Protein 1
Amino acid sequence: MVRSNIIKITLMGSGGVGKSAITVQFVQNIFIERYDPTIEDSYRKMVECQSKTWILEILDSAGTEQFTSMRDLYIKNSDAIILVYSKTSLISFNDLTPIYDQIVRVRIPDWCIDNEMDIPIVLCANKCDLLDDFVVTKEQGEQLANEWNTYCFEVSAKTKCNITEMFIHTIESVINIRNNKEDQTVQNTCKCNIL
Ligand code: GDP
Ligand code: MG
């Protein structure tokens, strides 16, 4: 079996939460104060993980998808999704629930009985450098992450705090899912041999 070494990560969330700033900080090590909110772009970066080289394709979505079917397509084509909100905006935090529900609809088909999501979702609380402006608490983020059976990273695109850690966690989650799938395939193959 040919294993792909490409990992596609999509950042989603309301406008202004810092999706572009996070992406550019991770890929280019700079903080951009102003970034055209309508620009949607993808970035490539090579990473070493579990002694292999991986090509990351990061899609910085603009959140201006006119049709939800556009978003469906992003969700279908991603290996992992980072859901971003700003700690300074409760609206941006609440905006993530409908996006999460859409991911569930797209990634868990009705006929799937074990109800398992085959894609890692990571919650990202950005702008944690703006201490005086927090309106979403750490506990609120953690509670939502618990509900979604995931992890909440408090990050700052400005200071780069936790940005690399969050991407590494995301990449490792994808690799683990791929390894599990491969193990299952091997087991299934064995079963076939016995028959
Ligand atoms: P996007 O619409 O989600 O892509 O958001 P942007 O990346 O364009 O960021 C929106 C605004 O928030 C910009 O002015 C950024 O400079 C600012 N911003 C993004 N991340 C941070 C952060 O971690 N800390 C602070 N203080 N500002 C940030
Ligand atoms: Mg942007």
Protein 2
Amino acid sequence: MSNVTVVGLQWGDEGKGKIVDLLSEQADIVVRFQGGNNAGHTLVVNDITYKLSLLPSGIVRKGKLSVIGNGVVIDPWSLVDEIERIGKLGVSITPQNLIIADNACLILPLHRDLDALREENAGPKARIGTLKRGIGPAYEDKVGRRAIRACDLGEKTTLQNKVERLLIHHNSLRKGLGAKEIDTQELLESLYKIASKILPYVKPAWKYLYNAKGQNKKILFEGAQGAMLDIEHGTYPYVTSSNTYAGQAAVGSGIGVGSIGYILGLTKAYTTRVGGGPFPTEQSNSVGKLLQEKGNEFGTVSGRSRRCGWLDACMLRQTVIKEGVQGIALTKIDVLDSLKEIKICVGYKLDGKKIDYYPSSQIAQAKVEPIYETMAGWQTKTQGLRDFDALPKAAIRYIKRIEELLGVPVVIISTSPEREDTIVIKNPYATDNTENLSAHSALLGRTLADASR
Ligand code: IMP
């Protein structure tokens, strides 16, 4: 298996930065394929903390190529700032180690404005709790076929025509929302200015990936956000505006669907969520507080405190099946170290009836009550453990139960933010794909009810 796709299975913040960094050691190329600078991946390498938003996590390693794929929406000003900020930490970023897909769409200041205006004008219940980075409005313009793309930065006439067209749409919206209209020339001038800093990286990224495939290079696809924030499969409308599912790695980078490789899904040993929206296993009590404090659950990008709760195996299993996940990386197990009892949600009750899946209706999503299984905690330190056999028995039981409930193996366990504090049971790059395919079809042969017993 020469490629691996890493995706979050919850509402983001599963610890993808660390796992991607770990795997990027074996990869030649790291690719972002969706989202934008709403992502926040923290890497701790040799005591230096790197907070990345848009740059692929491979950027901190020498000799790796980082690709920002066409499925990503790019705020060029924010990207230039990030390149400078990470550069100051001693990482050299040049067109030799960073490529931006020429067909990727841009986030403009007007998208940020619109994101903020909408959130501010929404009532507390309708507010999505976005990061106000303009992600949603930028994807709207992409689908509306009026977005500015990275390649347009090199063509003055195209840029002028497209900006004029874009402003007809945005200025009427702005008028309606009581915001100042945007001047065509002013926007064009600022785009011309930033273009010179971005264009050296802008290339047909798909070609580099195709060539890399021919040379048997290893590619790592780095997902951002998480499955429950997926625009189609998540807790709509409390979602982000991209497809966060693994399949998007192919469309969002221009590599064939058969080339995304082993699909590694990440979940914390508990659940968190930032922003609004349903969260059946949320614990607004001392357990939630403990998880938040021990897990340092505060947003990388926004600094907002994250809502915390028990692991939702029912929701996770649904995602594993729908997304085709082949193995699990379980992160932050050490956060549970002091708990006497640990709960796992194995199904829900809806209007008094048991159900074994998470429904799509907004009312039902908010109404379901979790059915919990309670397990004994281990009340000893797992933090920093690097050997599976060193884990306390109760922690092993918890991990095994997660495997049973999800129907796929836990292949990586993370026991602290440090790169070395990781138990690798099975290296996703060393996995035989046929083995995974048969494991997956065996899983699909079982019913959801079997797993939640
Ligand atoms: P947007 O992506 O900024 O439009 O925000 C939409 C929703 O996705 C909000 O609830 C955000 O809090 C959430 N979100 C976006 N990016 C991330 C992330 O990287 N981690 C966790 N939540 C995120």
Protein 3
Amino acid sequence: MTEKSYHIITFGCQMNVHDSQWLARALTARSFVEAPLEDAQVVIVNTCSVREKPEQKVMSALGRIRQVTGGSPHVLVAVTGCVAQQVGAAFFEKEAQVRLVAGSDGIANAPAAIERLLAEPELRLSLLDFSSSYLEREPGADGPCGPVAHVNIMQGCDNFCTYCIVPFTRGRQKSRMSAAILDECRLRIAQGAREICLLGQNVNAFGRDGHGDGLSFARLLHQVAGLPGLRRLRFVTPHPKDMSPQDIAAFAELPQLCPRLHLPLQAGSDSVLKRMHRRYDSAAFLDLVSRLREARPDLALSTDLIVGFPGETEADFQATLDMMRACGFMSSFSFCYSDRPGARAALFPDKIAPVIQQDRLLRLQALQEELGQQWLQARTGTETSLLLEGRSPKARMDTTDPPALTSWQGRDPYGVPVHVYLPEHADHTGRMLSVRITNAKKHSLQADALEAPW
Ligand code: SAH
Ligand code: SF4
Ligand code: F3S
């Protein structure tokens, strides 16, 4: 075991990934080093409870940690995030190695708590209180940032969709002060970011909760897009009901705003949407899509979908498939509904049998494969720009003459991975490159460079 070393295991959404990255920077600033699980003194499990499966994964991760570390009392295990918020101090009874439980707002103080726990081996701490406003966090270790940076703009959610645990685990919505958001964006750009993705559970309700400074989401988009050096702007996740005319207009007005929008539909049937408490119906969603496409004709949409919500009939399910075709989603995340204790739908009658849920999920995913392939195929022959991220994971050397070409991976404005051969000798990371798409693979594209990036 290496003294002052840490290992982080992350489950869940982009916000959890972002929290884990921050934990790593904050521990690095306290002179901790990263280590493999078998070597680490501190093991952090950053958890998700949005569905049954991720929650089960957390429990099996704790079992694996016990196995790998032999249950050593010298290894400090911290459970953070949404399951920690829910289960709380009961974790201390479940697993003897767990000495820190930190919920959504408690994470901000987790690095200091870890130092204290290492100094006081008998102590256990739980950080479960929700703060009354967005908690700014210590900046953590400085260092270069990749070409894409994620920046939190809020915490929590007020929507209480009936299937969802998030408002309970992340607490009420709290917007961050816009000055702090803009400062973090400037810092990331100075560290090398060319693309910024604004994060939150309900980003387009930013500024409406009375905790921040009241700047609207559309104004925030304008201010971030205007930062010198920024080439691309994205955000995730917006709620369809909160999309203002100004948000839609931003897609026409801001060239930095990428023509890709993740817009969670969840279901196509109006009665299911009503019971989900989504507060839009299929007609309103289609109207929103057409207004967005009017503002930005090259817009591509992706979505989240749930199958087998309580009471969902085959006709309801067919309505979801119809909406998928009507919207032409380029991709989607799809899930079988699972009961979340505390969420209202857990009490709804007419639960759908798992075999039926699974059958619907497979049919939905088959349709999505078809729509995704159609969308990718239609891209071949078009010109676009890439933000280069690094060598392709499975880079093959090109053997043509002159040699020394390597496959690089970039993302197009839709966030699709695109592979392109470039000269080996230079580091192209963070550069923009004009390309022509030559070929569509299953979930990625191949392209030829239209210019020399060096
Ligand atoms: N705030 C975002 C993301 C919420 S969680 C939004 O409103 O879209 C991510 C996705 O998990 C949701 O969009 C939903 O599709 C899915 N999800 C949430 N609770 C679920 C549950 N109980 N069962 C199945 N899927 C669920
Ligand atoms: Fe959950 Fe709905 Fe909030 Fe998204 S908007 S986090 S699905 S309650
Ligand atoms: Fe999971 Fe919490 Fe995110 S429940 S999806 S980690 S907000």
Protein 4
Amino acid sequence: MTIRDNCSLAGRNTFGMDVRADSLIDWASTDELKKALQDIVKPVLMIGGGSNLLFMGDFKGTVLHSTITSIDIIGSTDDRVYVKVGAGVVWDDFVAWCTINGFWGVENLSAIPGEAGASAVQNIGAYGVEAKDVIDTVQTICLADGTERDFSNSECNYAYRQSIFKNELKGQYAVAYVIYALSKMPQPKLGYGALEQEVERLGGPTLANIRQAVISIRNSKLPDPKVLGNAGSFFMNPVVTEQEFDIIRSNYPDVPSYPAPGGIKVPAGWLIEKTGWKGRSLGLAAVYDKQALVLVNKGGATGADVKRLADTIIADVKQKFGVTLSTEVNYI
Ligand code: EPU
């Protein structure tokens, strides 16, 4: 276990915000976390790769980060394999490992920034696949009393970018391991947009080709946080009612949409682009020019700068379309 006091978090969040925490604890095992919890200074913030956070200032409390980086096969049947992944495993290292080992299920989630523990909290998703489609069990530690608790997939209350760990039990359980149930049989999911075309261009639906295709598509649209601070999609795609959708479509017949539980999903990137914000800046924060869903730190922006831009966009989208955008990024 490593404990650092008055520690910079600049390298711990992909927006690159240069803020500090009173204390930062990197825990490498469940025993270490249990020990740390005995006299921890509150409030407590759990982070993974810091790819979904926007720090509004210094964190007056303890930041907990797992450095459990094991990947173990813990069970298998004729067609499935169960893989226990440490919360601190870099997500894309796990996807690469699955690709090499011939395990299907997470290849469409290639190159998503962040760590495996957070994948189960955020229910990360891309190209028609969500983490919840392949999560079997989430193994956690209760921060209040240090007890271990396993959550089955259905107990996690998964929905689009949502889980029990972001809602009902927010801040109460630290993820230690995620058990992923993967397929030994090919199960390509190529239904999303340009993916199939790119996979064909690379020579057909092998695991390696799908991974490569996803990486190329992402790289063409999304900024590298090492170069330009950002947290991927800043907003979630809103789900609107049929009535709201009809109003939008009557003015914009080309509006993209997808069926979703409870209504119709409209891409927030499209809504933002139509307000004219794509590629524009407000101070040191900007809307990425290739994907309007992504807000970037042009260098030296504070959390307040990014929030000011986000709030302005939310107001403009509301005024133009009557739709209220919610952030995917968590303000801290
Ligand atoms: N669009 C625009 N303008 C834009 C961006 C998008 O018109 O600036 C339109 C596109 O033309 C397309 C539609 O919106 O018709 C969807 O765009 P895209 O395929 O790029 O996906 P998205 O809905 O904008 C979501 C996820 C991404 C994920 C992609 C691919 C959310 C909030 N975002 O974006 O996730 O990579 O689908 O599956 O659901 C992330 O969460 O950080 C992330 C990048």
